[in-house]
Each structure stands twice: as structure tokens, then as C-alpha cells.
């Protein structure tokens, strides 16, 4: 005999609360205390209760699905796959499904999917016709980072403090003795790339340091990274290098070795996006951990908040990144 599935009534009875309070707690809505929410969630886990998505969809006229749009060519990069899994983690908690959306080559196709209740985008720009279609769809759009060129058009955003993170990284390199720090940056076209470029320019200017930067593709090839690194290492005095585009660290270390530089000794190297491989390279690579999985979860939670509250009084949330110091910047000492 198939055991009966636990119901919302069972959860409410087990937690000693009303059905309405149990529903609010399970959906993360305001109106219940933290203690009540914790008690309801604990009982739901103990009973194995899961939201009846089809029933809720009928009641709310929603599809209970979210569309996720990643930047073109990034599905093989750990940062974006981690972000996507973070979205899926949070969607599972809310009883939602996630649909990975295709990219449009032109605006004729409209929004990529009609069977979702809202969208999540990451490192998006209105130069992308697919992003423009989502913003024009009439459905809520929550972005990881601000949508470049679309001030105020997204329903809400979770933005990382890249200014503070990059400044801490540059300060770290300077404290390790670096005098001439070069930067390999992504092209202008996203809020992230603009923030990095502005922060690097301001940091070097404020300290009277040389501004040495090159721009490469958002998703660069190995040859493109190698050429940019070789170019800046030909400049006399360069003793530190920051590489921003995801996936660039292995090619950077290889190009530095070909140039006869000893990473971690006469050349410090750091990356703006941490990846699992950075702890396995030789030397290991100092990086900024953007905590992509947590960012993805935060975006999904914020989309649910938009659904519940409509227009938010505070639509922008700021997330902090952390600096992970590894062997690529550990060898030098402060200049005397």
C-alpha cells in the first residue's frame, strides 16, 4: 500500500501553527517569526513534505517555472555553472522549476520562453537582443549584477561589490611589493567589466602608478589570453598581473613561463574570478571568490520576493566577495 503523502495540514499540525502560518513560513513570506519559520521548516523536513506545485500553479495562475539566461558561450565556465546550480538550489526550496533559455540572434523571436513566470539573468547587457526581449516581456526580471545599459528596467538585482574586492586585491599585490600592476580586462559591455576598469584606473591614478591594461574577449581563447599577457610582460618593470575574464589563469601562467617569469617570485599573478582549478595549478592562483552559487540562490529568492511584494522598496542587494590568497602572490616581500 502506497503511504499517504504529507500535506500542508500535517506540517501545520506538527508545528502547532495555523495552515496560513505554515504556508507563509514555507514560502519565505513575512508575517511569521523566525522561530515559527524554523519550526515549520524542521517539521516539513521531518515529514518529507514538498510543495504541491501543480495545485499551487492552479491557484495562482502561475507556471511555477523560472527562465535562466546565461551570457553567450559561458556554459562551460565554472562561475556560471555554479551560479546556475545556485538558482536551482533555491528554486527547489520554493517548489519551482528552472528552464535554461536559448539565445536569440535577433529580436524577431521575442522572449525566449512563454511558459515561465519570471527571469533571472547574469552579467547581462541590453546589447543582447535576448535580454532586451526579457525586459520587454512584462514578466519580472532579476539580475545577477546590474543589467548594463538598462538602469531601472530590471525588477531587482543582486550586485557584488567588485570595487571593494578589486581594491583589496590591488592593495594585497602592492603590500607584497608590486610596483607596476598590469590588468587584463574584459571588454566594455557589462556592469562587471565597467566596474573593474574604473576601479583599476582609479586605484593606479590615486597612487601615481602606471596604468597598464589590455582588453580581451569576455570568453577569451587561450591564444588571446597568451597574446595579451605576452604583450604586457614585454613592458619593462611589470611585476604583477591581474587577469579578469573567467578561465584565463592557466593560459596566463603558461605565457608567463614562456616569458621566463617565475610566478609567485618575480611576477605576482591574481585572478578576478575564482575557480576550482586555481587550487590545483602550479603555483596555485590567488583569486577573488565571487561565491557564484550563493549569488544564484540570492537572485532566485529575490525573484520570489518580487512575486510576493510586487515593486520592492529596496530592489538592489549588495553581496560581498572574499579574497583567497594562494601561492601566485605569496613569494614576494614588501619593498624596502
TrEMBL record:
<dbReference type="GO" id="GO:0003700">
    <property type="term" value="F:DNA-binding transcription factor activity"/>
</dbReference>
<keyword id="KW-0238">DNA-binding</keyword>
<dbReference type="Pfam" id="PF13377">
    <property type="entry name" value="Peripla_BP_3"/>
</dbReference>
<protein>
    <submittedName>
        <fullName>Transcriptional regulator, LacI family</fullName>
    </submittedName>
</protein>
<dbReference type="InterPro" id="IPR000843">
    <property type="entry name" value="HTH_LacI"/>
</dbReference>
<keyword id="KW-0804">Transcription</keyword>
<feature type="domain" description="HTH lacI-type">
    <location>
        <begin position="6"/>
        <end position="60"/>
    </location>
</feature>
<dbReference type="Pfam" id="PF00356">
    <property type="entry name" value="LacI"/>
</dbReference>
<keyword id="KW-0805">Transcription regulation</keyword>
<dbReference type="InterPro" id="IPR010982">
    <property type="entry name" value="Lambda_DNA-bd_dom_sf"/>
</dbReference>
<dbReference type="InterPro" id="IPR028082">
    <property type="entry name" value="Peripla_BP_I"/>
</dbReference>
<dbReference type="GO" id="GO:0000976">
    <property type="term" value="F:transcription cis-regulatory region binding"/>
</dbReference>
<dbReference type="InterPro" id="IPR046335">
    <property type="entry name" value="LacI/GalR-like_sensor"/>
</dbReference>
Amino acid at each position: 500500500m502506497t503511504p499517504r503523502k504529507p500535506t500542508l495540514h500535517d506540517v501545520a499540525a506538527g508545528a502547532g501553527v495555523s495552515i496560513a502560518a505554515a504556508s507563509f513560513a514555507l514560502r519565505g513570506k513575512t508575517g511569521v517569526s523566525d522561530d515559527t519559520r524554523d519550526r515549520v521548516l524542521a517539521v516539513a523536513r521531518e515529514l518529507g513534505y514538498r510543495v504541491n506545485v501543480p495545485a499551487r500553479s492552479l491557484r495562482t495562475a502561475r507556471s511555477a517555472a523560472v527562465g535562466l539566461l546565461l551570457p553567450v558561450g559561458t556554459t562551460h565556465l565554472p562561475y556560471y555553472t555554479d551560479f546556475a546550480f545556485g538558482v536551482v538550489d533555491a528554486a527547489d526550496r520554493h517548489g519551482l522549476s528552472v528552464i535554461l533559455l536559448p539565445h536569440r540572434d535577433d529580436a524577431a523571436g521575442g522572449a525566449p520562453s512563454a511558459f515561465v513566470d519570471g527571469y533571472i539573468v547574469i552579467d547581462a547587457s541590453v546589447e543582447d537582443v535576448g535580454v532586451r526581449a526579457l525586459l520587454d516581456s512584462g514578466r519580472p526580471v532579476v539580475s545577477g549584477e546590474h543589467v548594463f545599459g538598462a538602469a531601472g528596467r530590471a525588477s531587482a538585482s543582486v550586485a557584488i561589490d567588485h570595487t571593494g574586492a578589486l581594491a583589496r586585491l590591488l592593495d594585497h599585490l602592492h603590500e607584497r611589493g608590486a610596483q607596476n600592476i598590469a590588468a587584463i580586462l574584459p571588454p566594455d559591455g557589462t556592469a562587471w567589466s565597467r566596474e573593474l576598469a574604473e576601479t583599476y584606473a582609479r586605484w593606479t591614478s590615486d597612487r601615481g602608478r602606471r596604468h597598464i591594461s589590455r582588453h580581451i574577449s569576455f570568453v577569451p581563447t587561450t591564444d588571446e589570453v597568451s597574446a595579451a599577457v605576452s604583450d604586457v610582460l614585454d613592458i619593462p618593470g611589470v611585476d604583477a598581473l591581474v587577469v579578469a575574464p573567467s578561465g584565463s589563469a592557466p593560459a596566463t601562467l603558461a605565457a608567463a613561463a614562456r616569458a621566463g617569469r617565475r610566478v609567485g617570485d618575480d611576477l605576482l599573478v591574481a585572478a578576478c574570478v575564482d575557480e576550482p582549478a586555481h587550487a590545483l595549478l602550479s603555483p596555485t592562483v590567488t583569486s577573488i571568490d565571487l561565491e557564484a552559487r550563493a549569488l544564484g540562490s540570492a537572485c532566485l529568492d529575490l525573484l520570489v520576493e518580487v512575486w510576493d511584494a510586487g515593486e520592492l522598496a529596496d530592489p538592489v542587494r549588495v553581496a560581498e566577495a572574499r579574497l583567497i590568497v594562494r601561492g601566485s602572490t605569496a613569494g614576494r616581500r614588501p619593498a624596502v
